[in-house]
Write a structure and sequence with these properties.
With about 350 residues, the protein is an alpha/beta fold. It has 2 domains: about 200 residues, Medium-chain alcohol dehydrogenases, catalytic domain (Quinone Oxidoreductase, Chain A, domain 1); about 140 residues, 3-Layer(aba) Sandwich (Rossmann fold). Helices cover about 25% and strands about 25% of the residues. It has 11 helices and 16 strands. The strands form 3 sheets. Strands 3, 5, 6, 7, 8, 15 and 16 form a 7-stranded mixed beta sheet that branches. The chain has a 6-stranded parallel beta sheet with strand order 11-10-9-12-13-14, sandwiched between helices. A 3-stranded antiparallel beta sheet has the order 2-1-4, with no helix packed on it. A hairpin with a 2-residue loop joins strand 1 and strand 2. Helix 5 packs across helix 6 and helix 6 packs parallel to helix 7. It is globular, with a radius of gyration of 20 Å. The two termini are about 15 Å apart. The structure holds NADPH dihydro-nicotinamide-adenine-dinucleotide phosphate (NDP) and zinc ion.
Length: about 350
């Protein structure tokens, strides 16, 4: 079969591989809609997880089941499914401990385009099919549903990590597709003042549509000062980090009230250390918490998040700025993600 792969750090291309084989608990899926991710860009061009050779890329897909193992109960060939980017081993000790995304080791629930071939192939393998696949609800557009694989669960997880409560003031740093889902998630969770940090005009517009009350442009001055100016020097209850770099944590601490919480889902592609400013961190006694996480996967969560779309509570179609048709367009879509033209939010390829 054909797939679009990371050949080595900094290099991608089309390759031929054996079609994956199906274990008794597994499924083989054929993609219907796929989306490239900023994480694919970090993986290939920043070498963020180290070198990988001839590994098929991609971890965001909606597909059709082509084959299931003998022990799979709830899925059969022909079923349309949403495939979460994170596919844990549900019988692992880490999953039993509540951290399924780290099943088998840190970040090891992230298998596609990390430890095994991803979804940019004519077929791909899904472990633990009953636990990891979700049925695509009738009538849901596959392109909009494809945002459920990673953008929705990651953006919303940032909000969960920051533990946004009714009436909280919140800053979301970064309003690419992930941060836009954090803005939407913070609004769903009852944030009051909701400040969004970004600069691309279409992201700014959509952040407002998802509930941002204030926009902060990080290119027009220090974001800490801008947040403090908007809050009479008091700062905010919660910060969600969905963009920026290692220095963003220091800014988040500086704009946070004592007892506040930071939820980070940004993938730090470069740099060695994250530093926290000692004084603004209350010399270690501020009760300012930092929580960081990889999105949780799994069927239950995926089906619950899909119900946000089917009930009209969340509209992910706003994220899709570029649509391509045909498997061969994967390369073009990924390069678009790498080059990030200013009108891009998220590209999707329909097979
Ligand atoms: P984008 O690159 O589309 O968006 C990044 C956002 O951050 C943009 O709004 C950008 O602003 C803003 N930004 C960039 N630099 C700064 C800065 N110095 N200060 C403040 N804001 C800044 O990324 P995505 O939305 O696609 O992804 C966000 C992150 O989430 C990525 O690192 C991705 O790898 C990660 N991720 C994490 C997952 C997880 O499970 N934890 C899963 C999936 C993705 P501008 O408007 O100027 O572009
Ligand atoms: Zn992704």
């Amino acid at each position: 079969m054909k797939g679009y792969a990371m050949l080595k750090i900094g290099q991608t291309g089309w390759i031929e591989k054996e079609k994956p084989s199906c274990g008794p608990l597994d499924a083989i899926v054929r993609p219907i809609a796929i989306a490239p991710c900023t994480s694919d860009v970090h993986t290939v061009w920043a070498g963020a997880i180290g070198d990988r050779h001839n590994m098929i890329l991609g971890h965001e897909a909606v597909g059709e089941v082509a084959e299931v193992g003998s022990l799979v109960k709830d899925f059969k060939p022909g079923d349309k499914v949403i495939v979460p980017a994170i596919t844990p081993d549900w019988n692992s000790l880490e999953a039993q401990g509540g951290y399924s995304m780290h099943s088998g080791g840190m970040l090891a629930g992230w298998k596609f385009s990390n430890f095994k071939d991803g979804v940019f192939g004519e077929f791909f393998h899904v472990n633990d099919a009953d636990g990891n696949l979700a049925h695509l609800p009738e009538g849901l557009d596959p392109a909009a549903a494809c945002m459920l694989a990673d953008m929705v669960p990651t953006g919303l997880h940032g909000v969960e990590l920051a533990d946004v409560q009714f009436g909280d003031s919140v800053v979301v740093i970064g309003i690419g597709p992930v941060g836009l889902m954090s803005v939407a998630g913070a609004a769903l969770r009852g944030a009051s003042r909701l400040m969004a940090v970004g600069s691309r005009p279409n992201c700014v517009q959509i952040a407002k549509e998802y509930g941002a009350t204030d926009i902060i442009n990080y290119k027009e001055g220090d974001i800490v000062k801008q947040v403090l100016d908007l809050t009479n020097g008091k700062g905010v209850d919660r910060v969600v980090i969905a963009g920026g770099d290692c220095d963003t944590f220091a800014q988040a601490i500086q704009m946070l009230k004592p007892g506040g919480q930071i939820g980070n889902v940004n993938y730090l592609g470069e740099g060695d250390y994250v530093k926290l400013p000692r004084v603004e961190w209350g010399c270690g006694m501020s009760h300012k918490q930092v929580k960081c996480g990889l999105m949780p996967g799994g069927r239950l969560r995926m089906e619950k998040l899909a119900s946000l779309l089917t009930t009209g509570r969340l509209d992910t179609s706003k994220l899709i700025t570029h649509k391509f048709n045909g498997f061969d367009k994967i390369e073009e879509a990924l390069m678009l993600m790498k080059d990030k033209p200013r009108d891009l939010i998220k590209p999707v390829v329909i097979m």
